[in-house]
Amino acid sequence: MNINIRYLLVRLLRFIVTFYVVATLVFFILKMAPGSPLTRYINPSFNQQQVRILKHQFGLDKPLHIQYVRYLVSISTFKFGRSLAYKQDVLKLIAEKLPNTLLVLIPALILTYVIGVGWGMFAGWKRGSKFEVVSLLVVLAGRAAPTFWIGMMTISVLAFKLGWFPSGGIKSPGYYYPSFLGMAFSSDTLRHLILPVGTFVFYLLGLPFLVMRTGMLENKDKDFIVMHRYCGLRERKIMLRAGRNALLPVVTVIALGVGYIFEGAPVVETVFGWPGVGLLLVNAVTSRDYPLAQACFLFLAASILIMNFIADLLYGMLDPRISAGRRFK
Amino acid sequence: MSLRQQSTARLSHSSHKDPLALLGIGIFLFFILIAILAPVIIPHKPLEILETEDRKILSDLPPSSFAWLGTTPLGQDIFAQLIIGSQNALLVGTSAGLLVAAIGTLIGVFSGFYGGRIDNLLMWITDITFGIPFLPLVILMAAYFGSSTLNIILAVGFLLWRDAARPIRSQVLELREREFVQVAEVAGASSLRIIFVHIVPNIFPLTALYASLSMGWAILTEASVSFLGLSSSTTVSWGYMLHEAFQSQAMPKEQFWWFIPPGVCIFLLVFASFVIGRGFEETLIPTLTQE
User: Fold this and answer.
1) Residues 6+ apart with CB under 8 A from A228
2) Which chain B residues are within 8 Å of A147, Cβ to Cβ?
3) pLDDT band at B289 (very low <50, low <70, confident <90, very high)
4) Structure pTM?
5) Structural domains in chain B, sorted by start
6) How far apart are the CA of A182 and the nearest CA of chain B, in angstroms?
7) What is the ipTM of this complex?
């Protein structure tokens, strides 16, 4: 394994600095926002004295820089406070909802990449054919149509009109599971999963498809392909050889794909009433539950950053020129 | 022929050859026309509550000649909302697109032209902005600062420039080595003059590509935020219409005329901005079009 330590450290440092900047940004957005974060607590009948005590309890009477330092300390010790609406530790709430989000995310990601890579390879190979043009249009359509609307359309047709799938939620009424795994692999959960997963796949397909197609166009006329053709290899085999060469950039966009899913989660989970982290964020925002909203947001940001970090490492491992290149620059 | 003439020639050439980009421009012009003529087209005000003569609310009407796409449970004309919605979508799309183009171009050009520390700093900032989850941030800002259209435009503009900055920078790095830039430098032109007279016009297709892509993203983002119910209820947008339809159980009630048209409109406008962008892309990378 020729992974370069310096490369790894540089990436790690970048990850930490970026997260710090994002956390700072959230702090100042909250401070700059009009209205007090205590609106939820303060009753119009409170007198000045009570408001002052409340502010003191939350440390809001301290100068800004002290508040900022306290905020950073509490974040780096994973203390995100309690949710105002659920009266529970926000980290516990997120940990409860995260498996549900992953339950959609992982199958969606696998399906997207299996379908997208195969389809993109074929479309790139058949450059200029009707098949390529139609594929491109379908993929662009998946990009351009709002995900929540695709969700609404599938619900109205496949759930309400045809009754093939449930219209939302994670389980049918009356179902109870002793363990998460028992739920994850039950047929009832699977029926609930198909529409949200399908919606995500349709939306994300463009990413691996387009990258794979471009990679095929680049490799199509390379010497080694011409060579294979001279050797009399079958067309399908030549395509797979070209495909293998085009695969590298697809790996890096996996992280981007995960990022898109986490970003799309609030909207898609809302449409399907899927109790994940995204829906938690939306509910927190609409009910002005600031600690929860802030923690959900930081969690989403951290997930995306971690995925980017992993992708950087993968890329450095797969293509040593990248991790080595830094040293000689 | 200068680079600019070349690219303009290629641009007009490829747009004749690229039926998709032409289709995109057609759709875009169609919606502009609708938005301008909106006050004339709509039969009722979009938020007006329609009543019969004996003061009963005309709620949940199916499509008819009175209300072409029926009415909402509150008795509002859906067709009127759809038409007015085009104004908001175009406003959000074009202004966010321009903002992204302006910020992205400035950062990319300064980074590529000056190099060294300025380059490192600007590219570092760009790197960091890539770590910010885009839609959740817009949701957070809409929640904290209030969800006016202006706030959404600003949130989109101040984040999406990140996509444009890096490609523009690489283009500038290449342009810097071109003779016409070096000649200008030798002739004593100031850096700012070189940047704005010689470099910025030459990266126009790239700027236009990202402006048009971000227009699509901005419209989608505004729609998503409004769909979540975070937009102000006095602005009628397509996302807001879908929010109302979703909340009022239009799907189980099979009121297809309510929730299909706004989605189709969003789709068409975003699709148009993507294929127009693709047209620019093919101008930039002609090998993509050559068979």
Assistant:
1) A237, A238, A241
2) 224
3) very low
4) 0.85
5) 3-289 (1.10.3720.10)
6) 31
7) 0.84
